[in-house]
Every structure is written in structure tokens, then in C-alpha cells.
Design brief:
Number of helices: 0
CATH class: Mainly Beta
Radius of gyration: 19 Å
Largest sheet: 4 strands, antiparallel
Structural class: mainly beta
CATH topology: Methylamine Dehydrogenase, Chain H
Order of helices and strands: EEEEEEEEEEEEEEEEEEEEEEEEEEEEEE
Distance between the termini: 23 Å
Shape: globular
CATH superfamily: YVTN repeat-like/Quinoprotein amine dehydrogenase
Number of domains: 1
Mean pLDDT: 91
Length: 331
């Protein structure tokens, strides 16, 4: 049920207008005991999910009903992502292997070793906009850029001193952004770097985060990149100038994020189980959702902009109503 009324709360003699939380359209038990990742296919035909039970599922993007189950990982699956043409699905496993699956044939196409050694996990993956390259980041600090057609590593970037938490290609495919942080030592400053995809060389070291960086994402134009810190900080960077353009704080430590609505909004899942959407220009919250009881480490917007999907450590995947004007914010 969508709750769209507002209530007025008196706070220190002033009136604060707060939107009532929005409930999910669909709530599904998934990947017990923990659901971890969600992704919509670019063509809008599939919702992929993964978690602690080793399986990757392909679901109906409206009902969330399971259509196909992909088996091959021996343990937890940290992230899933579709190729731009929606024909391939990549999944990153705790065993350090990234698997590419044929969506049509529901079978394994390729397995890639994301680590430099045998210890660690594949934490994060991203396709380039043309679908020819796949970036992988691992808990041992290894970052690789793979040539999918030739099935080899085009670049292995300098090994990072902290685990890699997020990798993202710029929409034009010319840059790769990487973020690091250690959840076991969250007070160690995470590092956000930009790399030239053609040469494998570092082009920028964006220093502002004082603690672990959880996730990053580019806006659709590739002009800005957003990074989220465990200290509740959201930093917005100007890519061309390699400098901080804006920043604001949210109510809890983020666990997942996605830039949505043509780059005007930021969807965030937090480590307390909260889900919210923020106006990037104003730093104000547009909408908040209620229902999860565990950390939300997966979040994605359906391509039509009408549904937001989340995966939580409470073992559920939820679908939420989206589609709202960016200028309506909570005060």
C-alpha cells in the first residue's frame, strides 16, 4: 500500500513536515539467511538476485517470481550485473570467481579468477557500456579489466592496500572508478581512484573520505560520480575537474546506492535496513521506505523508473513503488 499523506511534527517549537514511509509492493523470502544483490536487466525483462545460499536467480521484474535458477558458486554471491545488451549476467562469488552466464541458455559461459592469490573474495563487478569489458574487484585489493571476447585480462591495475568495495565504468567507457575500504577496520580511509581504460594508468586520486567507502556510481552523463562513506557521508565529484563538487550526510551508514532518474536522484539502502531516495542537487530526502529488518546491500531501479528493488540481510527481496518528481522533498 502506497502511503502518500504527510504528518506535521512539532520539533523545538517549529513545524517539521515528514512524509509517511512507503510500504513495499512485493516482499519475497530470498537467499536465506541473507539476500545481498539485485540487478534489473537493461531491457527490463529480468530481475537478478543473489545472496548467501549460493544461488543466482532470474526473476519476473514485476512480481519477483523466480523464473530460472543458476547454480555454480560454492558460496555466497556478492554482486550480480547484466551486460548492456541483457544477454549475459555476471556474478561475483566469495570463492574469488566471477561467472558469466548466458541468460537465454541459463548456463555458464565463462569463469574468471578475480584474485591475485587463493585467499579472498570477488566483491564487485561492472560491465563497460559497450559490453566488451568487465571490471572485477576483490577483497585482496586486486582490480582487473577483462576482455570478454578474448577471455583474458586486458589490465591488472596496481594492487590496492584495502579491499575493493566497488567498481564502475564511466558511461563513455573511457574511465574506470574504483573504491576501497575495510569493514573490519572502517576507520581506515577508503580510496577513490579513476583509471584510464585504454592505458590502465591512474588519472585521479580523489581524497576526501575519512573512513571506509561503501559504494560508488556515475550519473548517466558521466559528469559526476557519487561515493558513499560508512560515516554517513555522500560525496559528489566533478569527473572532468577531479574535484569535490558537493556533499551531504544521510541518516545511517549506506550499504548500497544507485544514481537514478537521469542523474537527479540517489537511491540508498543503509546498514540499519532503511531505504531512501535523495535529491542530489539539494541533498534532501525525497522518499523513505519501511520494511527491511537487516542491512540493505543491494539496490536497483527498474529501467522504466517505476520500481525500486532491494536485497537485505533479513533474507528478503522487496520491490517498491518509484516514479516521483525530484523537486518534492521532505523538509
Amino acid at each position: 500500500m502506497l502511503l502518500s499523506f504527510t504528518i506535521c511534527l512539532a520539533v523545538f517549537g517549529q513545524t517539521q513536515v515528514e512524509a509517511l514511509p512507503v510500504e513495499p509492493l512485493v516482499s519475497l523470502p530470498a537467499h536465506q539467511p541473507q539476500a545481498i544483490a539485485v540487478a534489473f536487466s537493461p531491457d527490463g525483462n529480468w530481475l537478478a538476485t543473489s545472496g548467501a545460499n549460493r544461488f543466482v536467480t532470474l526473476r519476473d521484474p514485476t512480481s519477483g517470481a523466480i523464473q530460472r535458477v543458476l547454480t555454480g558458486h560454492p558460496g555466497l554471491v556478492h554482486e550480480v550485473v547484466f551486460s548492456p545488451d541483457s544477454t549475459l549476467l555476471a556474478s561475483a562469488g566469495a570463492e574469488g570467481i566471477v561467472i558469466l552466464w548466458s541468460v537465454e541458455r541459463c548456463e555458464k559461459v565463462l569463469a574468471l579468477q578475480s584474485l591475485s592469490d587463493d585467499e579472498g573474495t570477488a566483491r564487485t563487478i561492472a560491465f563497460s557500456s559497450d559490453g566488451r569489458l568487465l571490471a572485477t574487484g576483490a577483497s585482496d585489493g586486486t582490480i582487473k579489466i577483462w576482455d570478454i571476447q578474448n577471455r583474458n585480462a586486458k589490465w591488472q591495475l596496481p594492487r590496492q592496500r584495502l579491499p575493493v568495495t566497488s567498481v564502475k565504468f564511466a558511461p563513455n567507457g573511457q574511465l574506470l572508478a574504483t573504491a576501497t575500504g575495510n569493514w573490519r577496520q572502517p576507520d581506515l580511509p577508503g580510496e577513490l581512484r579513476l583509471w584510464d581504460v585504454a592505458t590502465g594508468k591512474e588519472t585521479a586520486d580523489l581524497k576526501k573520505h575519512e573512513r571506509e567507502i561503501k559504494r560508488i556510481d556515475f550519473d548517466p552523463a558521466g559528469k559526476r560520480i557519487v561515493s558513499a562513506g560508512v560515516d554517513h557521508s555522500i560525496l559528489v565529484w566533478d569527473v572532468a575537474g577531479a574535484k569535490l563538487a558537493d556533499h551531504f550526510n544521510i541518516h545511517a551508514a549506506p550499504g548500497s546506492l544507485a544514481v537514478v532518474q537521469d542523474g537527479t536522484l540517489l537511491a540508498i539502502g543503509d546498514l540499519r535496513g532503511g531505504v531512501s531516495v535523495w535529491n542530489l542537487a539539494s541533498g534532501k530526502r525525497v522518499r523513505r521506505y519501511v520494511g527491511h529488518e537487516g542491512a540493505v546491500l543491494g539496490i536497483a531501479m527498474r529501467p522504466d523508473g517505476k520500481v525500486l528493488a532491494t536485497a537485505s540481510h533479513d533474507g528478503t527481496v522487496k520491490l517498491w513503488p518509484a516514479g516521483f518528481p525530484a523537486d518534492k522533498v521532505e523538509q
